[in-house]
Amino acid sequence: PRLKETSGWQQAFSSPRLDWVIERVALNAKVLGGSLGDHDKMVAAASCSEIILWALQADGNGSEIGVFHLGVPVEALFFVGNQLIATSHTGKIGVWNAVTKHWQIQDVVPINSYDAAGTFLLLGCNNGSIYYVDVQKFPLRMKDNDLLVTELYRDPSEDAVTALSVYLT
């Protein structure tokens, strides 16, 4: 839905009927001047390990961008800029890049917490480490085409990072 001050709430998009229960939803309406052109608003829905991503037009119609599979149950679904992120506590992250139109799955250490700051995705993991990925640059390692996940901090006692809150000025 969208709110118009003169007429209240109005339906902005209705997906086709899905054969599964929607467990997670993510909405992105902040992509300005992006590579999607008129498709600057996106909505994603997830159930178990499947994710459907739609681009929304101003007239209320939507077009399916794709169906993606994480391989494990999706526990968090959100946008960082115009990149769609799916995470699982099992240690998998999936990233859909709006520029390259590429879906990348990466195995990492089991994830306990996450936060986003600017274009950075930060992951708090059960081994006491905080990892980050600059999802705007969508960095891939040359040798194996894996997502470049960088360790930012490691707790000497390896206590799990159970909460993250990041603020960049």
Automatic annotation (TrEMBL):
Database matches in InterPro entries: SHKBP1/KCTD3, WD40/YVTN_repeat-like_dom_sf, WD40_repeat_dom_sf
UniProt-listed GO biological process terms: positive regulation of epidermal growth factor receptor signaling pathway
UniProt xrefs under SUPFAM superfamilies: WD40 repeat-like
Domain of life: Eukaryota
Protein name (database record): SHKB1 protein
Natural source organism: Anseranas semipalmata (Magpie goose)
Gene: Shkbp1
